[in-house]
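request received
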Amino acid sequence: MTLIDKPSAAIPAPREITTKPRVSDKIFRGVVTAGGLFSLVVLGLILIYLTYQGYDVLKSQGISFITGSAWNVVSDESGNIDYAATDFGLAAMLIGTILCALIAVVIAVPISVLGALYLTFYAPAALRKIMVSIIDLMAAFPSVLFGIWGFFVLMPSAEYWAKLLNKYLGFIPFFEMQVPVFTRSPFVAGVVLAIMIIPIVTSISREIFGQTPLDRIQAAYALGATRWAMIKAVVIPYGRSGVVGGAMLGLGRAMGETVAVYTVLNIVYQINWQVLLGAGGNVASMILLKFGEAGEGEIKALMAAGLVLFILTLVVNSIADLIVKSTGAKGR
Amino acid sequence: MSTTVAIPKPGKPWTATPKQRSITAGIYLAAALVSFLLVAVTPMKGKLAYFTLFFFASIIIDFAASYMQRGMASAKDAIARGFVTVGITFAVLPIFSILFEVIKRGYKGLGLGLFTNDMSLNSVNDPLGNGGLLHAIVGTFVMVLIALIVAMPIGILTAIYLTEIKGKFAVPIKFLVQAMSGVPSIVAGLFILSAYVYPITGSLSGFAGSLALMILMIPTIARTSEEVLLLIPSDLREAGVALGGTQWRTVALVVVPAAKSGLVTALILGIARVAGETAPLVLLTGGGESLNFNAFDGPMGSLPIYIWKCFGQGTEESIARAWSGILVLLVIVLALFTLARFLSERKETR
Amino acid sequence: MDKTATKPSSLSDVAAAHKKSPGGQSLGVGLEARGVHAWFSGKHVLDGISLDFWSGTVTALIGPSGCGKSTFIRTLNRMHEFIPGAQMAGEVLLDGKDIYESGTDVTKIRLKVGMVFQKPNPFPSMTIAENVLSGLKLAELKVANKDELLEDCLERAGLWSEVKDRLNAHGGSLSGGQQQRLCIARSLAVKPQVLLMDEPCSALDPGSTLRIEETISQLSSSMTIIIVTHNMQQAARVSDYTAFFLSDGGPGSMIEVGPTSEIFSRPRDQRTENYVTGRFG
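response:
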């Protein structure tokens, strides 16, 4: 039996494989790529146009656009705006935006996470399907519905809880009241926003929990863990960052919400930290409010306000997106 | 190999026995009793008090029972079980209240006239039965349709780029689609105002509204389409290419038809997403009262605007109209959603 | 114990004749399976398995893939019930008590009947030390001297010398073989009576495999070990008793059981002989 000769040549370099692309495929790629880049174009245009429109205002107001909290339009006899005397300050509304959104997140995230855990690990199969459908359906409800329902149905009950909070927890600065006006407060807006974002955060959390690697779950159970012990040891470490990302997405949504907040929040132009008090506002609903009667100059200011809101939500959503992605990548 | 030992019936000895179920029932009963007692003897009152007490009482009793029977690990498990149940209850409860209230307050305004008249001859403060929603429904329909005409190809092309071509822009595009879905609706309205209405037409129109809706629709369609296309097994694509198909033929004639019902679902979800958008339409469409099929000429009504205006008037009649409008809108959204669900389930069974 | 001629004799008959223990005394039956059937959504996958596992022994379950060996051992620690649509019948006795009896605390059963999986699965969010002691934390067990237990378990798993200086490193930073030994150490920490091993070496290189086999031999003096393996040579090396499983397209059943040396040299059933001589499988 002859032995095979050992190859004495060196290992060759891999060949480069190429295909000549057909014209039709080139066109196809071009069209599809153009479609895909459309989002980039739109986002860029939004940035450009809003900046362009709001430029005069931003230039004359400077940093006080964000830090000032007065909004007084001063115009001369012919209706032209006197930029020097006018104040456009978003601070009160920005704080209101963040405050309402934070309240929403504080209420919504625990409910959503617990609900997602229930759906993934506790619910019997038939019930799970129904409840997932219900929650997905709620994510599709129009915001004007939440606003009007919030105003007529939720606010009376919310008033009751607000009074309770003020009575028992009034020593905390947030829950103090100067004037006992309980309706149309950031608190109520926060509750309505919470109900709006619960479906989104629950969905995201549910997906993440569902992706927990099965072998770790089995390892925990094989060691004699109860369901909760397993969740604490395996599911939560795995899904922690993803849930944070989901919460931030909810935050972003709550910050940009317009009509739901508009109906249940009394827009008052001063910084208000007392969440139970019926005063405050958020940037989006302020824009809606002022738009009806705004003259040209004020509209520019509203455009600038829109720009600020746009950048704010963009930043929050981008961070959230990165965090959610990193769960899958790291796998821990 | 035959055996003379009979095969027993399959069973699930780990499921709860009647005895265990009655113990659980007993725990809840005891908790209810405790909460009633506490409400009777303390100054707490109202539904809130009952539910909170019931919740805490049932968790404490469950904890104690589990601890005595099985130890701390089981007791902690009992607490967790209580909390997650409450969590899902709160997550799901609002929908019942919402549906109940919408139906209760909205059905009064329903009637055939609602769907055949518009509001050009009436004011929203008129008694119910005068005027109708026709202009609003038509307006919404027209604007959404126009938005769909552009959003559909862009959304699907974006999804195709992400799943089929996976070029060097894939990561930025995915990120951008996500960013676009976070754009507040009022910002979209302001943008169209500044980019289209002011410089180009100078007047409000239904078309302007469509442009804003487009921006809000595209991310939903793109994301859902992407998910659907990813579900198509790659064997299908390989088969197409192996038969000598070019990439575009494979995608157009093999992949897309296979994903057809899923893509339709994506479109339906996109429609549902924007059907209820209010803020941009307030800025852009002028909210007309009369029937207007022409999106380029004159103000156009829409369901969300109609609801918004009615609410703004504040009279008893107008608020009743607002609720009816909400009811109609809700039925439309529900119908779309159910249709989307139905299509995607049918696809799974195929 | 009388069964029809086509059913294999129970292991206890065999064990009665071949007692294994120092000093010739029987250590008693650790785990007994009696007529265990299993179904998945109505599909019959295990047909009446009756096997006794004696303390201080290693029993290998061999047979071609798909004949229910893994399903069977999952009925022994009540992991079978996690699969949707799972059903079973029969009894599994641990210390004489049926683990499927209603009202049994299943977490306690799993403390006594541990499991090592085919793919090593240490908890990546925990350090090596935390991994080993995780069973205690999960079951809320208190132990007097954690460090002593930690060293003891790692020592018995054959891993102590390699990791004693980096107990705070992450569980995922070890090689495949080391991770599997970590999983073994983790199972040992809760002091099980029985250790189930589902093809523990099939994902590992030969060097790690040999080390784990040594570990198995050492562990068997203090507990009952049941190991599912596709590798017949491994079964021959490591086990005292071997059971051969087979399915003819229907539910899997146990064809023959006996001391390992006999199964491999003088099997009584023709099918066993065909399998161990490599005519199929």
